[in-house]
């Protein structure tokens, strides 16, 4: 496989559970060995970036979460007073959103060349996965 000179560039905003799953889906399809190896290496790097991004998101939530008098995070509630699972009250939404936007705009340049789609040798693939992983191909 020749070097294309097109390095993989992926914004933090493109890294989520669906993109990791989509790469894993490609690895379960019968593709040529060199491309499978390259994808395996790429997913290790992307997974590491994704984990770092998640940790920073958690820090931002912790930083901007509203707290009660005992210092405990206040959880968002619905109109009946029930806690909405996975949600917290943010004390300064504009500042929180600005920091999240900044985090999501970070562009990660991987040390791998983009994959030429034909190198996968796929007869079929999920369109949804390929759309999510657009940053991998040229």
Structure characterization notes:
This protein is an alpha+beta fold and 138 residues long. The protein has one domain (7-136). Helices cover 48% and strands 15% of the residues. It is built from five helices and four strands; from the N terminus they run E-H-H-E-E-H-E-H-H. The protein has helices at residues 17-28, 33-64, 93-104, 117-120, 127-132, and strands spanning 7-11, 75-77, 83-88, 107-113. The strands form two sheets. It has a two-stranded antiparallel ribbon with strand order 1-4. Strands 2-3 form a two-stranded antiparallel ribbon.
Describe the structure using short key phrases:
138 residues; alpha+beta; two-stranded antiparallel sheet; two-stranded antiparallel ribbon; 5 helices; 4 strands
Task: Outline the secondary-structure elements.
Blueprint: E1 7-11, H1 17-28, H2 33-64, E2 75-77, E3 83-88, H3 93-104, E4 107-113, H4 117-120, H5 127-132
Antiparallel strand pairs: 1-4, 2-3
Helix pairs in contact: 1-2, 2-3
């Amino acid at each position: 496989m020749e070097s294309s000179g097109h390095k993989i560039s992926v914004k933090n905003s493109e890294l989520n559970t669906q993109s990791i799953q989509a790469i894993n889906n490609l690895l379960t399809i019968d593709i040529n060995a060199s491309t499978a190896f390259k994808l395996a290496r790429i997913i290790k790097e992307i997974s590491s970036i994704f984990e770092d991004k998640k940790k920073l998101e958690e820090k931002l939530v912790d930083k901007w979460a509203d707290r009660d008098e005992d210092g405990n995070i206040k959880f968002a509630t619905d109109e009946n007073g029930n806690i909405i699972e996975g949600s917290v009250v943010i004390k300064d939404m504009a500042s929180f959103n600005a920091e999240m936007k900044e985090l999501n705009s970070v562009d990660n340049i991987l040390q791998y060349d983009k994959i030429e789609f034909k190198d996968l040798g796929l007869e079929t693939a999920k369109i949804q996965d390929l759309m999510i992983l657009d940053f991998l191909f040229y």
